[in-house]
Amino acid sequence: MQQLNFTITENKAIAHDVFHVKLFCAQALAPKPGQFVNLLVDGHYLRRPISVCDWDNGTLSLIYKIVGQGTAKLATYTPGQSINALTNLGNGFTAVSAKRPLLIGGGVGVPPLYYLTKELIKAGQKPIVVLGFSKTEEVFFADEFAALCETKLRVTAQGNSPRRFITDEMNTLDFDAVYSCGPETMLKAICTQAKPLAPGHVQLSFEARMACGFGACMACSCRTVTGYKRICKDGPVLTKEEILWT
User: Fold this and answer.
1) What pairing do the DSSP bridges indicate for beta strands 2-15 and 82-89?
2) DSSP per residue over 51-87, as a string?
3) pLDDT tens digits for 94-105?
4) Can you tell me whether residue 27 is helix, strand or coil?
5) How many Å apart are CA 131 and CA 151, to the nearest integer?
6) Is 191 strand, coil or helix?
């Protein structure tokens, strides 16, 4: 974990209530795909956890959705402003030996999969990405993923009768590993619907309300087969084998 002051170089809307912010700090260390940062927003005591979307030599790219006063305030920040961040937080994705990994992102769970996709391609793998959004106006980064690899887009709430879900796409595809981030209902469906894969080959990134962001307050604990784990420190990425669904 590092605590650093970053300079905002970009902060712009890319979809309805969705913003892409870039932060630069020369002292920042490269994060692992699936890790997150905790931003200190002016006027708010608790930091805002946001997954890392991309990394490039001191520049962190983050995508966030306005869901409350903190993220609404963050959306007003402009290039040149400084923001304090705790970085390299959490247990990210661990790349497994696979030829054709499947990455499934739902809504604001999409961003961490972008950085992961780039790293898997560097490792010689050929990922396929499925992106799911509730509404057309909420779609973001579809073109950026498509520029990297085979990408499928599903908008679930519009133009589909009967309504279909992102996981409907899953077992029509050929894959030997799964990485996913998104709503818990989607993650549970992946666990129940995915074909059998080797242990550790289904990795899921969970969302949770976090206070400290580094495991001290125990506010984001969840039950697993080995006892309680903290989403912010032991997660947010957990394997299918260790999850106990409630």
Assistant:
1) antiparallel
2) EEEEEETTEEEEEEE--SHHHHHHTT--TT-EEEEEE
3) 999 999 999 999
4) coil
5) 8
6) helix
Sign of CA dihedral 107, 169, 165, 167: negative
* Angstrom distance (rounded) from CA 42 to CA 207: 23
Domains in the chain, CATH or no CATH each: 2-89 (2.40.30.10), 101-207 (3.40.50.80)
Helix spans in 91-140 (H): 111-122
CB 36 within 8 A of CB 51: yes
d(CA 213, CA 218): 9
149-163 pLDDT tens trace: 999 988 876 555 455
Q: Where are the alpha helices (DSSP H) in the chain?
A: 69-74, 111-122, 142-146, 184-193
97 φ, ψ (degrees, to nearest 5): -70, 110
Q: Token pair for residue 86?
A: 């705790």
Residue 82 tokens read as 């400084």
Structure-model confidence comparison of residues 209 and 224, the more confident one:
224
Q: Which two tokens stand for residue 97?
A: 């030996």
Q: Which amino acid is at 221?
A: S
- What six digits make up the tokens of 167? 């996981």
